[in-house]
Amino acid sequence: MKEFDRLVEVVHTLRKECPWDREQTLQSLKPYLLEETQEAIEAIEEDDDELLAEELGDKLLHIVMLAEMLKERKTADIKKVVVGITQKMIRRHPHVFGGKKLKSPGQVLRQWGQIKKKEKARRRKQRGGKK
Questions:
Q1: What is the pLDDT of residue 100?
Q2: Reduced to 3 states, what is the DSSP secondary structure of residue 77?
Q3: Are residue 63 and residue 107 in the same domain, yes or no?
Q4: pLDDT for the residue numbered 129
Q5: Residue 116 sits in which domain range?
Q6: What is the Cα–Cα distance from 20 to 59, expressed in whole angstroms?
Q7: DSSP-assigned letter for residue 52
Q8: pLDDT block averages, 10 residues each, the chain of length 131
Q9: Exposure pattern of 102-112 as b/e (b: 16+ CB <10 Å)?
Q10: H or E segment at 75?
Q11: Which pLDDT belongs to residue 86?
Q12: Does residue 114 share a domain with residue 70?
């Protein structure tokens, strides 16, 4: 989507040219990430769709900014983030994208938890037992 690509370009430019954005780190953005999450929750509680859309934009900005920082560290980028979450959603929904059939939200939730637990164990094993 060209609008998303434009946001990625804007964030890249901000990291190069804006003194405030340039000095931000993964650690320095943590409080803002929490603040934007709380504001999104408040918009939901107020049933204010327009405000929620704005707050989701703020959260998206933080996601793109954090991904840009990973790109600077040469460890990941926004494409890796998007591909990763897409693959995760497909893996964790075999009842939608595979042959398995589930009938209730409870079954879906249990399956999600089982898959998540297996994925975490696999990651821990790949990292040599580290958290």
A1: 86
A2: coil
A3: no
A4: 67
A5: 92-131
A6: 18
A7: H
A8: 97 98 97 96 98 98 98 98 97 92 94 95 85 57
A9: eeeeeeeeebe
A10: none
A11: 97
A12: no
